[in-house]
């Protein structure tokens, strides 16, 4: 594809240009990112080291935490560094890499959330056949499909980005590279690209959200036939998942179904989406999941025993 670009780098305006506020943003971003890394890496370690967490649910939770870590890392470190710079710049190539990685891991998270919902559905509606339907091989195949689907989605984003000429200006009114703010800098008609963006990202977010909500309505309806203890346990798990779904999809739908429209709160909502959601994921699953908390306690006890022996 022949590019007609005069722009070799972009200037990212970030959240604010005020020096004092930039320092505050730096501290907040750094704390959130460190919390995201520690929380998700803790879940990854617990699932890998605990034999009690070998069910498909924790198989998907492992990859959800891994996806959260990579998703946040694809954006947060540069955001943190940029808050200290007088003028934050990013090369055209780095910008395209950021677009690809953000959409790849964001899309992967959508697919994993859907797979976790399906796992919960089968566990509740087909408990006797659950080990046969959702076995290790099936989980592996589903995750492979999710990775391939995410790659195809991200390649579509890159294709849309590279299909536009950028002649200047090169100032991006955002804190990271995404297709929606880049469309505003293209020196060409972006109507068709906007439609394709809605069809690609917007439809993915909307359809995924509708499927997940429908799935959980069915699951919650089915809990009437369960025992009090079973209903309480299933309800706790489902509520945790629903909270994550709402946090993740609200911003996704808000931004990508109206890509041609810019609202003053877009960037602040984006912060919750890019930095907040990966942090909330381990907190919700750690605080509301008894099995994870038990595995965490055992891991901590082993560490204390190991330290005492030394």
From TrEMBL:
Alphabetical list of SUPFAM superfamilies matching this protein: Family A G protein-coupled receptor-like
Entry's Gene Ontology molecular function annotations: G protein-coupled receptor activity; olfactory receptor activity
Transmembrane intervals: 24-47, 59-80, 100-122, 134-156, 191-214, 234-256, 268-287
Keywords on record: Cell membrane, G-protein coupled receptor, Membrane, Olfaction, Receptor, Sensory transduction, Transducer, Transmembrane, Transmembrane helix
Annotated membrane topology: Multi-pass membrane protein
Alphabetical list of InterPro entries matching this protein: GPCR_Rhodpsn (IPR000276), GPCR_Rhodpsn_7TM (IPR017452), Olfact_rcpt (IPR000725), Olfactory_Receptors (IPR050427)
Compartments it resides in: Cell membrane
Cross-referenced Pfam families: 7tm_4
Classification via Gene3D superfamilies: Rhodopsin 7-helix transmembrane proteins (1.20.1070.10)
Location (main, coarse): membrane
Protein family (similarity comment): Belongs to the G-protein coupled receptor 1 family.
Protein name, UniProt field: Olfactory receptor 4C16
Species in which this protein is naturally found: Heterocephalus glaber
Gene behind this protein: LOC101721873
């Amino acid at each position: 594809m022949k590019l007609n670009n005069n722009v070799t780098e972009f200037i990212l305006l970030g959240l604010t240009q005020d020096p004092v506020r930039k320092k505050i943003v730096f501290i907040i971003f750094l704390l959130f990112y460190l919390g995201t890394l520690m929380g998700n890496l803790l879940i990854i370690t617990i699932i890998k080291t605990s034999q009690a967490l070998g069910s498909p649910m924790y198989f998907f939770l492992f990859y959800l935490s891994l996806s959260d870590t990579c998703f946040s890392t694809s954006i947060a470190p540069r955001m943190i560094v940029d808050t200290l710079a007088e003028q934050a710049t990013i090369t055209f190539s780095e910008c395209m890499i950021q677009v690809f990685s953000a959409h790849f891991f964001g899309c992967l998270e959508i697919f994993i959330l859907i797979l976790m919902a399906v796992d919960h559905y089968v566990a509740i509606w087909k408990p006797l056949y659950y080990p046969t339907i959702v076995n290790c091989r099936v989980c592996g195949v589903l995750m492979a499909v999710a990775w391939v689907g995410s790659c195809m989605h991200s390649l579509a984003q890159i294709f849309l980005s590279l299909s536009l000429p950028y002649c200047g200006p090169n100032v991006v009114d955002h804190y990271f590279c995404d297709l929606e703010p880049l469309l505003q800098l293209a020196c060409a008609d972006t109507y068709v690209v906007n439609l394709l963006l809605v069809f690609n990202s917007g439809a993915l977010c909307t359809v995924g959200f509708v499927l997940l909500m429908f799935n959980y309505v069915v699951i919650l309806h089915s809990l009437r036939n369960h025992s009090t203890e079973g209903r309480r346990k299933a309800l706790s798990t489902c509520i945790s998942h629903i909270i994550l779904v709402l946090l993740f999809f609200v911003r996704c739908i808000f931004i990508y179904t109206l890509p041609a429209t810019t609202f003053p709160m877009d960037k602040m909502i984006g912060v919750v989406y890019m930095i907040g959601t990966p942090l909330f994921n381990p907190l919700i699953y750690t605080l509301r999941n008894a099995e994870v908390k038990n595995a965490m306690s055992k891991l901590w006890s082993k560490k204390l025993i190991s330290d005492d022996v030394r």
